[in-house]
Amino acid sequence: MEQEKIIYGNVTLSQLTHFVVELCGKDALIQMGFVTDSELNDAYKEKGSYLKFRYTDKNSLFQKIYQFFSEIEKEFEIPLHKTERKKSLDGKYFEEIELSDFQHFYSQIIWSFIIQICGTRPFENTQNNLSKKIIYGHLLIQLTTYFIEYIEFVSNITFDEAITEFAKVHNLKYEQIYTEVAENINDNESDSLLNVRKALQKCRKENTNPTWKIFYPFLKAIHKKDRRFSFIFLNLYFYLNFKNAVEWLSFKKSDLQKLESFCKNHQKNDTENIIKDAASFINENVDMQNLKDIAKKALYFDSLLNKNCRENLRIFQSNTNELRNELPHSFFFWENWFCAKDYVYKYLDSGNLEHLENSVKWYGLAFENGKYFMGKSSEQFIHEAIIVSVYLDMKKNPTKARTRLQKTSDNNSDTKTPLDQTTKNFYDFGLAFDLLLNDMNDAYNLYYHCFQNFWNCFSPESECAKNIKNKDLFKASNIETTDTPENEKVLKSRETLLKITDGKINNILPTTHNVAYTPISTAIIQGYFDIAELYLDKSKYPSLNLNIPNTNNCYPIHEIVSQYLRGNDKEKIKPLVLQILERTDKKVLFTRTNRQKISPLQTVIQSLDLDLNKRFLDKMFGTEKIPDDFIISADEVSPIYFALMIKYFFNNPIEYVKKIGIGNINYKNLFEAGLSESEKENFNTFEISVVMEISKNLENAVPKEILNKRKEEIKKKTDEIVALYIERTSDVDGFISYSMRDQIANKQGCTALLYACEMDDVETCKSLVFAGADLRKEIGKTSELMLPNGNMLFLLNNFIHRAIYLKAWNCLEWFLKDNKNIAAEYMHKKEENMTWLVYFLLMQQKEIFMNTQKYLDVQNNINRFLPLFLEAGASLKEDTAFGSAERILNVK
Question: Model confidence over 163-212: pLDDT tens digits?
């Protein structure tokens, strides 16, 4: 079995970790202080590598190696090239980075193997053939000949040739070079010159790398005389490491020689022929029929995994003999997985936890024996295994499970994932490959949403299952299914709270719920404000500490401002808010809850109480202004940005929801059941539609006069709040919000000014500009139109673009009329062979194309804005990719 694991399937994460380390050299990483020997030994173990490798985590081994490269690039002034790379396994998100030649060269391979281990690959291939195809493909089939030229260059030189050429160019003897290198060694060894001479002579003879202890001072000596040669030696060093390290990926030396030979024969050819030859070169040993058969099997499993139901299990069981023969290496993974499902169904039909225990065992077997055969089913399998495992943990020992939940709520704890060991095996793998959103919050949500996650994954078919579901969801909602009358519950609860002594006033109270609270928080949540007032009496409770969090990282100040936001008797609650605020540490006001990522200031802004907002700001910042790196919500926005969100939502919920299509939500912070962005996005989309429906019903139900008066009151209050935060923010342009949903929008970014523009809020725009906002600020680009040559039109994301695209006509009019000096600067800017006047006219044409009934409105809009464009300096005759404005206006 162990031999099969090496030969078939994919490169394991442990092998990949070895490969990455060998590229830099283990001694180099240790001596430069990026990792320790024990950390590396742990990472080489399969389970250890999950924790050390996580591609996108800044503390992972892989990111430490990128830091190593960055230090080297900086010290030796290595040329860098801008490039885009994937930022997520699903390929939705990209990031622009600068890499040196070699980093660019090998990061292509690393990322592709991460995708292959846990991505969209077929699940039946020999590892060596798979490795060859990946490496060949990612290095050869590119839009340019960059990699081919690089491989040809580096593989054609030897260490001896490079050092000989360096000595010749600078008229040096080898002994002089050795002496200068020895002088850079700081260990005061008397024989350092001898060691340097021996090491470098060996490298010249065998074309190998010296140890980092020798190579680093050698590189410093070379760089001091000739930066160009230090670049050559560094690339040679990394390429020689690559030639040795690539064997960890089951890529043979003969394959590497074949690759080098191909590059040497093609470096002068044109790109089109190179790519054509490379495609043939890569696929010459690939069994295409086998790949087609595997693709069919992938579709078969896609269908079976589309829904968890008995019928799909029966289909799989009826095909097991055939599948066993057709999938000799991955069949055991699918068999174990479906066996695990079968035991879940047995539990649902009986309520017997032993079946659930057996199910978790089979998930474990499927994982241990087949994690590198999962392919594109990885996310679904890992989520399902985690969900069932946590569900069992909660059902079998709810007290212990709640303790785990409480541990995950402690932001000061080093224990980010206090899961049971079985779940942790699945969880660590999911984190390593970004199949989960983020560690601590996912672990918290796993337990908090344990029942919802399970029933979202498995549907009840039997009466027994329906009964189990009802009981689970009652528990999840903190609803006690007892016959005790409500008034008796209230009396008992009050009696318990009134018995609290000063010695126990700061203890977390025992509970059967998922979240546990301190006595004062419990009193506030249950609306016993008289008891909260009693606890605040220093003569009776001198030990009361208002800086102790509940198990949701939620403090009494969070709870009381939440009650103030919701309460009808605000005059009674506000004095309590002020008392608690006075006795709360300043640092507590900067915290956010674990579940919904809500800060006290966020809730205070929502209250629209100007006085309370001023008091909070005075306590938090004193006379200083709010810095732009302070964020307050799950959307990860600044206070000024959040104040604008509240203004637009409160004033016109329907219009707000329509325009928030590319919103700011960061799904890892969205507190709903689900372990992935897509699961949370589906819920958020549903939630938005519900908000729209409620708002429409409310508008229809409330008399127009009352509704208008209410809107006027809200507008006045929100305007005051926004004005306060504009005044108290240090840099109103400093915070930039990036959409978490849309790949194009994600590259743009939005300031408070651009946000006010898209909501067509002229008065706020004026206030922001007066406070220092820059009307010229541009953040990224976006595309909406196809150019005549078939390419997409990319235009700068700035004020005029946003006003035109989002039909913020009042803001556009203000920009063109009251800011003519700035508007004039844009009238002849031809981004992508386009003027803003032509872009405006094209968007008007598009409006008519989408709805011919808007012809008259569009014509009126053109008549309104054409003179303003011309007064600002636009030209009717200036040509663009779509012709001139005059030609577009004359088109009938």
Answer: 999 999 999 999 999 999 998 887 665 578 898 999 999 999 999 999 99
State how far the Cα of 526 lies from the Cα of 538, in Å rounded to an integer: 22
- Could you tell me the two tokens for 278? 């490379």
Give the Cα separation of 761 and 749 in Å (integer). Answer: 18
- Contacts within 8 Å (CB) and 24+ apart, 645-649: 646/605, 646/606, 646/608, 646/718, 646/721, 647/718, 647/719, 647/721, 647/722, 647/761, 647/764, 648/759, 648/761
| 203 Cβ contact list (under 8 Å, min separation 6) | 159, 160, 209, 210
Paired with 626 in beta bridges are 729
Q: What pLDDT, on a 0 to 100 scale, did the predictor assign at position 2?
A: 42
C-beta separation of 125 from 285 below 8 A: no
DSSP letters along 460-522, please?
--SHHHHHHHHHHHHHHTT-------HHHHHHHHHHHHHT--GGGTTSPPP-SSSS---HHHH
Tens of pLDDT, residues 276-323:
787 777 776 666 677 677 778 888 998 999 889 999 999 999 999 999
CA distance 150 to 243: 14
For 645-666, what is the mean pLDDT?
74
Report the C-alpha gap between 23 and 247 in whole angstroms: 11
Residue with tokens 């969070």: 558
Question: What is the pTM for the complete model shown?
Answer: 0.82
The three-class DSSP label of residue 794 is: strand
Q: What is the pLDDT of residue 676?
A: 82
Helix or strand or coil: residue 735? coil
Whole-number Å distance between alpha carbons of 796 and 839: 12
The terminus-to-terminus CA distance of the chain in angstroms comes to 74
Nearest to 615 by CA among 625, 606, 624, 604: 604
Which token pair is 317? 């069981």
DSSP 774: -
Amino acid at 372: Y
Total Cβ atoms within 10 A of residue 271: 13
Q: Which residues pair with 84 in a beta bridge?
A: 96
Q: Angle at the Cα of 283 (from 281 to 287), degrees rounded to 5?
A: 150
Residue in the block written with tokens 């006690």: 480
Q: How many residues does the structure list for the chain?
A: 892
Q: Give the SS3 label for residue 557.
A: helix
In the DSSP assignment, the letter for residue 750 is: B
Only one residue has tokens 């074949």, namely: 258
Distances (CA, A) of 216 to 72, 231, 796: 10, 13, 44
Q: What are the phi and psi torsion angles at 520 (to 5°)?
A: -70, -35
CB neighbour list of residue 559: distance below 8 Å, 6 or more residues apart: 521, 524, 525
Least confident segment among 663-677, 697-711, 878-892:
663-677
pLDDT bin (cut points 50, 70, 90) of residue 692 is confident
Q: How are beta strands 781-786 and 81-86 bridged, if at all? A: unpaired
Element (H, E) at 302: helix 288-305
Pairing of strands 94-99, 81-86: antiparallel
Does residue 844 contact residue 862 with C-beta atoms inside 8 Å? yes
DSSP 106-139: HHHHHHHHHHHHTSS--S--BHHHHHHHHHHHHH
Q: Is 172:180 a contact under the CB 8 Å cutoff?
A: no
Q: Rounded distance, CA 56 to CA 81, Å?
A: 21
Q: CA–CA distance from 508 to each of 446, 546, 563 (Å)?
A: 22, 12, 20
Q: What is the pLDDT of residue 411?
A: 56
Helix (H) or strand (E) holding 793: strand 792-796
Q: Cα separation of 751 and 767, whole Å?
A: 14
